Amino acid sequence: MSACTHIELNGPLSALESISLDEMDAIKLMNRVDTKYLTNEATLVQVLADAARAGYRALETEGTKVSAYDSIYFDTAGLKMFSDHHNRRLKRQKVRTRSYVASGTAFLEIKRKNNKGRTSKKRIGIPMGELQDFSSDAAACDYLSRKSWFTVDELSPALETIFRRITLVNPAKTERLTIDTGLRFRNLRNGRQCTLRDAVIIELKQDGHADSPMKRILLDHRVKPVRISKYCIAVTLTDPAARSGRFKTKVRQIEKTINHKITIQ
């Protein structure tokens, strides 16, 4: 992948008070409304400074406020989950495994969106060695069949996403903000890969549409809501055979945000 110099974020993050995983338990927001935003690392530094002044706290695990994530998205041979999103189906699902690298834990996760725009996430723990193949895990397979529309025989690994995540919590503990940087994608079916360079995807997670200081902070920095899916962008970039016309405008929006054309390897 082409080289990209990332901004060091430990300095800006040091101004934010820490919050522990135990304290985060009160705001899991497993059934929520998500609002996504797109920006770059230079703007993120300014957003973090304003967040610190507004009293936001940053999740700290294993002595760091920046956590590494590795996710494997599963789909059918015909990319039904991708196609459902592309075709604007209101009720849809995504199935993935996710590794929380620092803690050495992994989960099978099922995300569902309903026709009211609300997102729910269900998950079950799995061994790290099952990230790309959990078919021999009876408990995971049973969980998948009970919680999703798919069986393990219908699915195979489609896409890997690797990124670093910062998680912020507002003072009232009524919302959570995830900030993903260093995004890299690898198509597991054709080997193509790419990076989004210094792009930043922010996701505000709330139980409802309550007023949020972070929404005002983002607006002050001209960071506006955008509908974007890491999985769908990754497939669009790495799979020329996928019917992805609707998402190509999102790719151009990312390229404008980072002032750089995304290259595929």
Description:
- The chain is of the alpha+beta class.
- The protein has a single domain (13-258), classed as VTC, catalytic tunnel domain (mRNA Triphosphatase Cet1, Chain A, Alpha-Beta Barrel).
- It has eight helices and eleven strands.
- The chain has helices at 10-13, 21-24, 41-53, 80-86, 138-147, 213-220, 230-238, 248-258, and strands at residues 17-19, 31-40, 57-59, 67-75, 92-100, 105-113, 119-126, 156-169, 175-187, 193-195, 199-206.
- It has an eight-stranded antiparallel β-barrel with strand order 2-7-6-5-4-8-9-11, surrounded by five helices.
- A hairpin with a 5-residue loop joins strand 6 (105-113) and strand 7.
- The longest helix has 13 residues, at 41-53.
- 33% of the residues are buried.
- The mean pLDDT is 92.
Attribute tags:
single chain, 265 residues, alpha+beta, eight-stranded antiparallel beta barrel, 11 strands, 25% helix
